[in-house]
Write a structure and sequence with these properties.
The chain is mainly α. The chain contains 5 helices and 2 strands, in the order αααββαα. It has 2 domains: 84 residues, Arc Repressor Mutant, subunit A, CATH 1.10.10; 31 residues.
Length: 116
C-alpha cells in the first residue's frame, strides 16, 4: 500500500501538476483515494507511516490536506523499500532458505544413489 501511495504521488508530481494551483504538485487525499480505490482508512494509515518516515510531507489549506513526496520518498519508491519488507521479497529470507533447499536436494540425491 505504501509503495502505491508513493507511486501516485510521484506520478502526480511529474504529470498532473497545475501551474496556477497554490499547492503546486501536491495531490489531495481525495485524489489519492480516487486513483487507488482503497478504503480511506488504509490510505490514511499508509500516509501516516510515510509522513513519520519522512517519505512524504503533509500541508493543509483550510479543510483540505495536500501530500507531497520528498527526496527520501523518491528514493524509497525507486529502491522499492516498502516492497522489500514483504517476507517473500526479502533477500535475507531467501539467503537463509536457499542453503536449506540445496542441502535437502543433496541429501535426496545421495539417498537415491545409495539404494540404486
Amino acid at each position: 500500500m505504501k509503495h502505491k501511495v508513493l507511486r501516485v504521488l510521484l506520478d502526480f508530481d511529474y504529470k498532473e501538476w497545475d501551474k496556477n494551483s497554490i499547492s503546486f504538485g501536491s495531490p489531495t487525499f481525495s485524489t489519492i483515494n480516487e486513483k487507488l480505490k482503497y478504503s480511506g482508512e488504509k490510505i490514511y494509515a499508509a500516509c501516516v507511516v510515510l509522513i513519520e518516515n519522512g517519505d512524504i510531507t503533509q500541508s493543509e489549506e483550510g479543510f483540505t490536506m495536500y501530500y507531497e513526496i520528498t527526496n527520501k520518498g523518491r528514493y524509497s519508491y525507486y529502491e522499492k523499500v516498502y516492497l522489500n519488507k514483504i517476507w517473500y521479497r526479502s533477500q535475507k529470507f531467501w539467503s537463509y532458505l536457499v542453503p536449506i533447499f540445496i542441502s535437502l536436494g543433496a541429501l535426496t540425491v545421495s539417498i537415491v544413489s545409495l539404494y540404486n
